[in-house]
């Protein structure tokens, strides 16, 4: 398994490391990444130490991992982790929730389009989660809908409520914009407003909070 960096031509800008412990999967990911315009340098890493060196050198944007190899890797302040789960892991919300990750993909559903979209969303500060996994995580997180003592009711506008519902389905800003027939910038503003009102640092936390206080139902 090589650890030599590969560089795409053009205006690419994301530096991505692959560390998955399976040579066939590793080479397949490299082939897909080579054809994604958003990706610049590609590092095939053979050990946790190699990943940690790249992080220490501030030379990475995203590390692609599988759960069995994730634990030894120390997190940097800038690098983001994309976790690849297999079918069994994706059906285990407690397992997925315990992983330190900034985004998820299910290996059996991995395509060039899904990988490219996930990397773009992570670069934009989103936390992409496949809809199926999001539903499992939210079901696991759901508790009886009762407002904690002293907590005020969160008041969303009708458009913000619709946006929250779409967030619970795992939609990106671009997909929300299409659903609402507005610009992507407008969708981004709506999402930011929902997160602010729910006092949530990210989209997943916003949806979990909304479930816990009874604003949306988890079916």
Strand residues, percent: 5-15%
Find the CATH topology of the largest domain: Rossmann fold
Which structural category fits the helices and strands? alpha/beta
Total domain count? 2
Number of strands: 6
Per CATH, the superfamily of the largest domain is: Response regulator
Taking strands numbered 1, 2, ... along the chain, how are they ordered across the largest sheet? 1-3-2-4-5-6
> Roughly what percent helix?
40-55%
Instruction: Describe the largest sheet.
Output: 6 strands, mixed
The second-level CATH architecture of the largest domain is: 3-Layer(aba) Sandwich
N-to-C SSE series?
Answer: EEHEHEHEHHEHHHHHH
Question: If you compute it from the alpha carbons, what radius of gyration comes out, rounded to the nearest whole angstrom?
Answer: 18 Å
Distance between the termini: 44 Å
Name the poorly predicted regions.
143-147
Count of alpha and pi helical runs = 11
Which class of the largest domain in CATH terms?
A: Alpha Beta
GO molecular function: DNA binding
Protein name: Two-component system, NarL family, nitrate/nitrite response regulator NarL
InterPro entries: Sig_transdc_resp-reg_C-effctor, Tscrpt_reg_LuxR_C
Organism: Streptosporangium subroseum
Question: How would you describe this structure to a colleague?
Answer:
With 219 residues, the protein is an alpha/beta fold. It folds into two domains: 6-129, 3-Layer(aba) Sandwich (Rossmann fold); 142-212, Arc Repressor Mutant, subunit A, CATH 1.10.10. Helices cover 46% and strands 13% of the residues. The protein is built from eleven helices and six strands. It has helices at 23-34, 48-56, 67-70, 87-90, 93-98, 112-123, 131-141, 158-168, 173-180, 184-197, 203-212, and strands at 6-7, 14-19, 39-44, 62-66, 80-85, 103-106. The chain has a six-stranded mixed sheet. Helix 3 (67-70) links the parallel strand 4 and strand 5 (80-85). Helix 8 (158-168) crosses helix 10 (184-197). The longest helix is centred in the C-terminal third of the chain and has 14 residues, at 184-197. The N and C termini lie far apart (44 Å). The model is unreliable at 143-147 (pLDDT under 50).
């Amino acid at each position: 398994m090589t650890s030599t960096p590969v560089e795409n031509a053009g205006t690419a800008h994301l530096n991505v490391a692959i560390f998955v412990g399976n040579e066939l999967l590793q080479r397949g990911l490299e082939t897909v990444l080579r054809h994604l315009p958003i990706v610049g340098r590609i590092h095939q890493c053979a050990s946790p130490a190699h990943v940690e060196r790249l992080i220490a050198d501030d030379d990475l944007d995203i590390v692609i991992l599988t759960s069995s190899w994730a634990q030894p890797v120390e997190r940097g302040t800038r690098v983001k982790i994309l976790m690849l789960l297999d079918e069994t892991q994706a059906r285990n919300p407690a397992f997925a929730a315990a992983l330190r990750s900034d985004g998820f993909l299910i290996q059996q559903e991995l395509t060039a389009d899904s990988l490219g979209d996930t990397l773009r969303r992570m670069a934009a500060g989103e936390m992409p989660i496949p809809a199926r996994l999001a539903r499992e995580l939210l079901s696991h997180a759901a508790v009886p809908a009762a407002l904690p003592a002293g907590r005020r009711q969160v008041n969303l506008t009708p458009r913000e409520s619709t946006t929250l519902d779409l967030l619970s389905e795992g939609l990106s800003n671009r997909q929300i914009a299409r659903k609402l027939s507005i610009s992507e910038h407008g969708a981004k503003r709506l999402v930011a407003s929902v997160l602010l009102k729910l006092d949530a640092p990210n989209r997943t936390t916003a949806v979990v909070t909304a479930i816990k206080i009874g604003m949306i139902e988890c079916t």
